[in-house]
């Protein structure tokens, strides 16, 4: 597939290229998705960056918060046979 005549437009203090809907649909892209950019043989190659879904263990591996601040709390009154 070849799409011709995309134009660079002013966007705030920068510039951007508006991608046609057919490309967004083809690659399941949404606003705020990320791309990597590679320059090869005088061509600009854009590749969507797929976000990796982290496991719970991976999420906690980088956690640097205080454990003492962790805990459960209730902000409403009991409504049944809850035991505390």
How would you characterize the largest beta sheet? 2 strands, antiparallel
- The rounded Rg comes to 24 Å
Helix % is: 10-25%
Quickly count the helices: 2
Judged by helices, strands and strand pairing, the structural class is: alpha+beta
- N- and C-termini, Cα separation: 64 Å
Oligomeric form: single chain
SSE pattern: EEHEEH
With strands numbered from the N-terminus, the spatial order across the biggest sheet is 1-2
Total strand count, please? 4
Percentage of β-strand residues = 15-25%
Shape: elongated
Integer average pLDDT: 84
Uncertain runs: none
Kindly list the characteristics that best describe this protein.
single chain; 84 residues; alpha+beta; two-stranded antiparallel ribbon
């Amino acid at each position: 597939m070849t799409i011709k005549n995309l134009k660079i437009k002013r966007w705030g203090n920068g510039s951007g290229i508006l991608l046609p809907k057919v490309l967004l649909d083809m690659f399941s892209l949404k606003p705020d998705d990320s791309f990597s950019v590679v320059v090869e043989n005088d061509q600009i190659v854009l590749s969507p960056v797929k976000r990796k879904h982290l496991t719970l263990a991976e999420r906690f591996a980088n956690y640097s918060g205080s454990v003492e601040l962790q805990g459960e709390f209730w902000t409403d009154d009991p409504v049944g046979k809850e035991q505390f």
